[in-house]
Amino acid sequence: TKLDTANVENVSKILELALGQKAAKEVEEMNLPFAAYQQLLEIIIAAMTGEEPEAVAARFQEAEAKETAK
Questions:
Q1: Rounded to whole angstroms, how far apart are CA atoms 61 and 22?
Q2: Statement: residue 69 has pLDDT above 80
Q3: Residue 5 has what pLDDT?
Q4: Model confidence pLDDT, tens digit, residues 36-68
Q5: What φ, ψ does residue 8 adopt, rounded to 5°?
Q6: Which CA distances in Å does 24 have to 15, 62, 65, 66, 69?
Q7: 25-41: string of b/e by CB count within 10 Å (b at 16+)?
Q8: In degrees rounded to 5, what are phi and psi of residue 28?
Q9: Cα distances (angstroms) measured from residue 64 to each of 22, 57, 58, 60
């Protein structure tokens, strides 16, 4: 999966908005594997939007497929 600087910054902003600055920094300092980081984001986004985590995960997969097809 390709992550450019803009995507990394967006992920950081999502974490900060959802968890607060201190907790977001703690998560970022955990150096999680990408798959774990992505799953955490999916769960956070699902909680924020009221969607099922599976629906959010499906959207992530669709976006990833479009990105790799470029």
A1: 29
A2: yes
A3: 57
A4: 888 898 899 999 999 998 999 898 888 878 877
A5: -60, -40
A6: 5, 26, 27, 28, 31
A7: eebeeeeeeeeebbebb
A8: -65, -35
A9: 29, 10, 10, 6
Q: Which two tokens stand for residue 27?
A: 């998560």
For the record, the structure tokens of 33 come out as: 């594997």
CA geometry: angle at 34 spanning 31 and 40, to 5°?
Answer: 85
**Directed axis angle between helix 53-69 and helix 34-49, to 10°?**
130
Distance CA 18, CA 21 (A): 9
Write out pLDDT tens, residues 9-42. Answer: 788 888 999 999 999 999 989 988 888 888 898 8
Interatomic CA distance for residues 57 and 55, integer angstroms: 5
